[in-house]
Design a protein that fits this description.
Keywords: Aminotransferase, Transferase. The chain is 40% helix and 15% strand. By secondary structure, it is α/β, with parallel strands linked by helices. Strands 2-9-8-7-6-3-4-5 form an 8-stranded mixed beta sheet, sandwiched between helices. Strands 10-13-12 form a 3-stranded antiparallel beta sheet. Strands 1-11 form a two-stranded parallel ribbon.
């Protein structure tokens, strides 16, 4: 067996399952703010495109995907981020969801034979980054989120001797779980560090299409590079239809950026077996070509957040994130730790939230997720409001 498998920590939801095994949930209908799985209806036109393309199942798909899908994605990138021509043949690669692609990309770019190979991750973070680093033969290191900057990672606190060994930097913008969006100044700093030390930047942007002001879409990595007058050298971004179009089961996304990196990544994926189902490719084209359903989806989140956030702010330290569909709430004023809060909330109200410490690692002597909980407002407005009412009731009962 690969001994590096023993380095992997339990996934946050496995930790939650163990925690809740000793808790008897309140006798009320269960409400989950735990898992970030979109619950809004999948648009009918996407399901129709999928169903009408099932004849494609008779053919093996190519790893690179169809020309039509790559061109569709390239056009979306140009439209969404104001980019000049994106080369669909060399700068875009469809993937079967961003999760597997993030993991596989680390296996492609990390040279685990180099002594002291490091992969830098935000903290708190999406646990795939850590597992990808470990199984690629590197050691994960962490940049803690900075509450003073709406929880953007404090990359300026990373020492030079660490940067010298970093081979890959994972960025998540908008962030999971914090919702923080990197600014152009943040990207300028990261590009300068990449130029100096030669590491690759992998920007996870799967929450990029959920935001609260139609006039202020989150800045993307490729967009930042273009605004700063540079190319895509040592830079790739990952996106997905899961959150944007409410199709997490479709497993459809893409990687775009540095053509030289994508050429090697395509080679890896040819052996890895990451080709996308032909019917899924057709449905994906339909989804990427339509923005009306995305605007409707955003509007639904805006309505929920505008109602739920003020309610919870009465009893917890919580504010609207930059983007995304999570609330990152500080529970310190309740006198409970994040783990205690989650367990007692389930027992009292049958509402599930995810302890923030499960999403982070201790770095610099602190766990930046401690005393915070992540709440995914993915359910119906009615269910989210009921969940918020129960949380308020629970917090007041601690009084």
């Amino acid at each position: 067996m690969n001994p590096r498998l023993d380095l992997l920590q339990p996934y946050p939801f496995e930790k939650l399952r163990v925690l809740f095994a000793e808790v008897k949930a309140a006798d009320k209908p269960a409400i989950s703010f735990g898992i970030g799985e979109p619950k809004h209806p999948t648009p009918e036109f996407i399901k129709k495109a999928l169903a009408e393309s099932l004849a494609g199942l008779a053919n093996y798909p190519t790893t690179a995907g169809s020309d039509a899908l790559r061109q569709c994605i390239a056009t979306w990138l140009e439209r969404r981020y104001g980019l000049p021509r994106v080369n669909a043949a060399t700068e875009v690669l469809p993937v079967t969801g961003s999760r597997e692609a993030l993991f596989a990309f680390a296996q492609t770019v990390v040279d685990g034979t180099r002594p002291g190979a490091l992969v830098l991750c935000p903290n708190p973070f999406y646990q795939i980054y850590e597992g990808a680093a470990l199984l690629a033969g590197a050691t994960p290191v962490f940049a803690n989120s900075d509450p003073a900057r709406n929880f953007a990672p404090a990359f300026d606190r990373i020492a030079d001797e660490v940067w010298q060994k970093v081979q890959l930097l994972f960025v998540c913008s908008p962030g999971n779980p914090t919702g923080a969006v990197l600014s152009l100044d943040d990207w300028k700093q990261l590009f300068a560090l990449s130029d100096k030390y030669g590491f690759v930047i992998a920007s996870d942007e799967c929450y990029s299409e959920i935001y609260f002001d139609e006039s202020r879409a989150p800045l993307g990595a490729l967009e930042a590079a273009h605004k700063l007058g540079r190319g895509f050298e040592r830079l790739v971004m990952f996106s997905s239809l899961s959150k944007r179009s409410n199709v997490p089961g479709l497993r459809s996304g893409f990687v775009a950026g540095d053509a030289a990196l994508l050429k090697k990544f395509l080679l890896y994926r040819t052996y890895h077996g990451g080709a996308m189902n032909p019917a899924v490719q057709t449905a994906s084209i339909a989804a990427w070509n339509d923005e009306a359903h995305v605007r409707e989806n955003r509007a639904a989140y805006v309505r929920k957040f505008s109602q739920v956030t003020p309610m919870l702010a009465e009893v917890l330290d919580v504010a609207l994130p930059d983007a995304g569909f999570y609330l990152w709430a500080d529970v310190s004023r309740t006198g409970l730790t994040d783990v205690e809060f989650a367990a007692r909330l389930l027992a009292a109200q049958n509402v599930t939230v995810l302890p923030g410490s499960y999403l982070a690692r201790e770095a610099g002597g602190i766990n930046p997720g401690a005393n915070r909980v992540r709440m995914a407002l993915v359910a119906t407005p009615e269910e989210c409001l009921e969940g918020a009412r129960r949380i308020v009731e629970f917090c007041k009962s601690l009084g």
